[in-house]
Amino acid sequence: MPSVSWTETLTLTDRRELLDQQEPADSFACAAAAGPARRKLLDFAGAGLLIGAVLAIYAPALHAPFIFDDRVSIVENPSIRSAWPLVGTDERPGPLRPPRDVSTAGRPLVNLTLALNYQSGRLDPTGYHAFNVAIHILAALLLWRLVRRTLLLAYFSDRLAGVADPLAFVAALVWAVHPLQTEAVEYVTQRTELLVSLFYLGTLYASLRYWSATAPQAKTGWLAAAIAAAAAGMASKEVMVTAPVVVLLFERTFLRRSFGDALRQSAPLYAGLCATWGLLAALNFGGARSKSAGFHLGVPAHVWWLTQAHVLLLYLKLIVWPWPLVIHYEFPYLHSFAEAWPWIAPVSLLGLATIALLYRRTATGFAWAAALLVLSPTLVVPIITEIAAERRMYLPLASLIPWLLVGSYLTLSRLADRAAPAVSARNAGVVFRCTIAVTLAIAAAGAWLSFQRANIYNDPIALWQDAAIYQPENSRVQNNLGVVLVDAGQPAEAISHYRRALDLSPDYTEAQSNLGVALVHLQQFGEAQPQFERALEINPNYADAHINLAHLLAKSGRLDEAVPHYEAALRLKPSAELHSNLGHILGLLGRNQQARAEFEEAVRLKPDLAEAHLNLGASLAADDPQAAISHYQAALRANPDFVEAYSNLGALLYSLGRHDEAIEQLREALRLRPDYAEAHSNLGIALVSAGKTAEGVEQFEEAIKLKPDVTGYANLAMAYAQAGRSDEAILMADRAAAMAREQGQPAMARKIEDWLKGYRRSQ
């Protein structure tokens, strides 16, 4: 944007009052030059158009599934399972205590919004996406207001008085529909970017209102609003650390003669904004997400900075030519100036030009300085999991797009005035209409590209396949494509992508373990185990590999070997589900007291974990049947369709002589799962005991059809005997005894044969 001379002749409020009194110089005059009623009507129309454009782009993708980090930030995040207590404990964290190494660590406000989503819709992605879209709309509306008030400042003299509103509106519209914004909106976990941007813009807007307020009460209110927005931003993402500096640059550029003037005039504002840095420091004390970001992760600082010069130029290219867009970027690191100079040279020139223009207090200098400051945390601090990310441009675009639009309009106006100074008023109208027409055309094209891009999130396989086309050497893309293929029931297709990921990164622990998971899905257990073992060689502290290996060993009947891996996983990644799984294995090993302790811990950590209540109930059934009944009932409250809980509760009630209640529970189990053989057998026993022998026989016969085993034949033999069907009873007993011998159960065979001898004698 060209430099505009400094003037202090009118305050913001003065200019609005003056514009209300003036007649429009041309038909293109903005709402600021119209009456209040018309201005309000145009505001509503503009807001409707902006909201409609955003909804048209993103509404078709509201049901898109969770992707990538959403699994750990949402699906596996224990701190969002309840909205209260807000903080909780390490064992039962609340929404303001997110786990240390998820994307919301150190960002409790974002985690709280995820918890609210979970309370309203559990793991249905629709509500999460709708929230993101709503925040995006609010940010766009706020940007419109912020740019409009900025363009009406005395700094711009009268050059923008009649066009401030439409220019601000189309700038916000282009920003809202720009294809670069799709990742931040569609990738649910990246609401960190959405929320921090909303609060960043809110801090600037409230500060601007604070500067223009004349009434003490209004000034105090806007001061409080600016500080509150800054604090909320600090609780959303670390990039907010730059907000006080950008606010100072804004005031010094557009309102004051120097930094000293700005600090003196707005001392309470800067004291409050800087105080929020303390909140940011407290939230990140202890190294939240230290496994993915920091100078301690093996990437030398100079290597990261050289590489980020390449990344910055990529970002700038994507502003004007947003193709191709990729969900995950990976670049080779640049280790020396000799490698990096083609990118370092233009970036250095850009930086020097920005400093010079900022020193001269130009709007261009502020726009570029603000964008670079917002990007600076990720440009400076290594983030080894993502060298570049489109979403990082979400907020920088809020300064660069208005700069491009307004700067183009002013430059064209100046050129037109020089070409034909006698008709400058007419020139201004033509330039304005052309600027708006071209910008709206750009917005329409951007909206169409954004619509196409947003829709790809409906199909995770297509999303990662698209990334693999443009980033074929990206090991993380190959791994994640494998993950979504396995999730879609295509493990065979996933294997080649996992192997490709390992070719690119031989020590890629996650890909190694995921390859084992795909092999397990293909029933290739012998090949799967070495993959999990190799993953643990690479990283002995990789919890998922311990879990996967433990599951595989348990499935193979090697229960003793599975136990230490479950225990290792619990040390690394404690969860109620793991405690319940370990308890189940310990129970099968006959270590009942230890098993019960694991089930009790699982229930303590997650009171609504139905499987843990079921297992704890089963472990208590013999010693404390009333407590067991309570846990079965708790399991059914947590999961009203839990068939095994109905069946176990029915069997326990039968053992206590409560036959009618037992029959009711078992019938409910069979209503939910008609092919559940054990429930048919249990119901048969209960019916026979209740004197309903014919019905019991029907249940035993159905159980045999579904699962012909020794117990089923023996039960049916005794039911036939009680029904007086002796020949059939003897036939079933003979079959049960023969099957027991074939299966290596001699004691069971002798028991059935003894019953059969006694029965024959009684006939």
Characteristic key phrases:
mainly alpha, elongated, disordered N terminus, 0% strand, 763 residues, 35 helices
Major sheet summary line: none
Helical proportion, percent range = over 70%
Our estimate of the beta-strand percent is under 5%
Residue stretches low in confidence (pLDDT < 50, at least 5 long) are 1-33
What would you call the shape? elongated
Overall pLDDT metric: 91
Ends distance: 107 Å
Compute the number of helices: 35
Helix-strand makeup class:
mainly alpha
Which secondary structure elements does this structure contain, and how are they paired or packed?
Layout: H1 12-21, H2 36-58, H3 70-75, H4 108-121, H5 125-151, H6 164-177, H7 182-186, H8 191-212, H9 216-234, H10 243-254, H11 259-265, H12 267-283, H13 301-320, H14 337-359, H15 363-380, H16 397-419, H17 424-456, H18 460-470, H19 475-487, H20 491-504, H21 509-521, H22 525-538, H23 543-555, H24 559-572, H25 576-588, H26 592-605, H27 610-620, H28 625-638, H29 643-655, H30 659-672, H31 677-689, H32 693-706, H33 710-722, H34 726-742, H35 746-762
Helix pairs in contact: 2-5, 2-6, 2-17, 4-5, 5-6, 5-8, 6-16, 6-17, 8-9, 8-10, 9-12, 10-11, 10-15, 13-14, 14-15, 15-16, 16-17, 18-19, 19-20, 19-21, 20-21, 21-22, 21-23, 22-23, 23-24, 24-25, 25-26, 25-27, 26-27, 27-28, 28-29, 29-30, 29-31, 30-31, 31-32, 31-33, 32-33, 33-34, 34-35
